[in-house]
Amino acid sequence: MASVNKVILIGNLGKDPEVRHLEGGVAVARFPIATSESYKDKSGNKQEKTEWHNIVVWRGLAEVAEKYLKKGQSVFIEGKIRTSQYQDKEGNQRYSTEIVADNMTMLGGRSDGSTGGGNYQETASSSSSAGGNYGGNASATQNDEPDDLPF
Amino acid sequence: MASVNKVILIGNLGKDPEVRHLEGGVAVARFPIATSESYKDKSGNKQEKTEWHNIVVWRGLAEVAEKYLKKGQSVFIEGKIRTSQYQDKEGNQRYSTEIVADNMTMLGGRSDGSTGGGNYQETASSSSSAGGNYGGNASATQNDEPDDLPF
Amino acid sequence: MASVNKVILIGNLGKDPEVRHLEGGVAVARFPIATSESYKDKSGNKQEKTEWHNIVVWRGLAEVAEKYLKKGQSVFIEGKIRTSQYQDKEGNQRYSTEIVADNMTMLGGRSDGSTGGGNYQETASSSSSAGGNYGGNASATQNDEPDDLPF
Amino acid sequence: MASVNKVILIGNLGKDPEVRHLEGGVAVARFPIATSESYKDKSGNKQEKTEWHNIVVWRGLAEVAEKYLKKGQSVFIEGKIRTSQYQDKEGNQRYSTEIVADNMTMLGGRSDGSTGGGNYQETASSSSSAGGNYGGNASATQNDEPDDLPF
DNA sequence: TTTT
DNA sequence: TTTT
Description:
4 copies of one chain form a homotetramer. By secondary structure, chain A is mostly beta strands. In chain A, 7% of the residues lie in helices and 49% in strands. Chain A is built from 1 helix and 7 strands. The first copy, chain A, has a 5-stranded mixed beta barrel. In chain A, β2 and β3 (27-40) form a beta hairpin. The longest helix of chain A is centred in the middle third of the chain and has 10 residues, at 59-68. The two termini of chain A are 26 Å apart. Chains in contact: A-B, A-C, A-D, B-C, B-D, C-D. β1 of chain C pairs antiparallel with β1 (4-13) of chain D. Chain C binds 2 DNA strands through β1, β3 and β4.
């Protein structure tokens, strides 16, 4: 193997997280975050370019996202890139790229007075999934998903 | 701003790099790399999942890729995520995600006896672009692209 | 070669930066930042452990640090580990480890109402050093120090 | 909190790992790795500077290190910086900085024909510690040490 | 003390 | 010496 797939992002939520609670109590949250960089164009004018990233978090992290993350807030995200294939309605192969996060730290909001803070990781102990024993299956294992989810 | 967009990958090239030399002598290389992770499925059987990443490198790094990188080789890549929008032939909005690398280190090949090695970064000094003085425009500025490229 | 030395930190400044302006107009700033992690001890009580990191920044980044960073503020730091050897007064070999930063992003302060923000990188263009043309010598080259500094 | 302490290294082992098996079956391995960077000095001559990092791995990763890592080999290390304080024999406060790894990937050796490969993470499942149930205590929790070790 |  |  000898492979590494790691992403580190700091950006602001473009929307409130959308959370789904699957059978078995497993939670999944999705939200977009924006990163932006500024550069000078050929004429020397300052330009800004925004990149949008689709974040997915599972279990305990999803519950944290549901409770604490809001549109506009700044978060630190550590995770991996995952590209899914699907067929569109015309039957063409399409690709969708997401960041599956296994570590998330709130960095405070826009202007809402929240002081931010709080680091959360994808571990069994932070999961409240009923009856779940994800044990060594924690953050680090990169196997933190049920095998047959409907997407 | 306060944003960060960073990707770190170690994986193997799925194909030889495709290199284009643009007007002005600027080179661009593209190649896919695979990362894989193994996990146990519900039955306890070991499974492997491969993720493919489309890498883009510019200038000096593209020239290094052209000369030294071959299908099967292992590379360390540091860069950022960039998602481009385009319209498909039906006029639908599509997205394509790439990793724009600004640091690349060869880690040796499959079994070809090459010992690998060599770290390369997106700096002016590693660029042989004719007449180019990219100065502070180096790796770090994240502004390492011409403004109007045909893709 | 084939080597990588990369550090990513988010933490709070323990003190205001100490800035020195060397001959030639080159600036160096140093400041400590704290990272902390919480864990449960054997009795199940929540404990917190703080780690201190000595940050060093050069040139433009040092000037940014001097102007904008204050004790208590939160920063994102990207850099490399550097351990220096020196002899103490008894003539014993000692080691001192620092983080030489080449990318720095302010993440906002404690409670002072500052909204933070602002990404800065070690590039020629962000340096105001008189007469300096650090060109390709930017962030990425990891050669961003004069050769014979008095420490 | 809102803090992050992350290190990513690729380097070569300067020595074989030294492994200790503590009471309770917990293993700890230590080994130095070298990273090097090349730069041009003022006279334009190529210089190389080597940085040494002291790596510490626990439990399953220590056992992997004991079995598979040898002097000269190349490894990818992901972990965190930890600086310990101690008093030298003269009673002076001293500091020692180590990298506590929670992810380790062998990248192959010098010239010994080993093909390398293999990613290992600090999870319960990769640990063979007798009777251990490190469960959610895995890699990600950053609490992967017994509370009162003799160093 | 590694590696190129 | 920070922050929560």
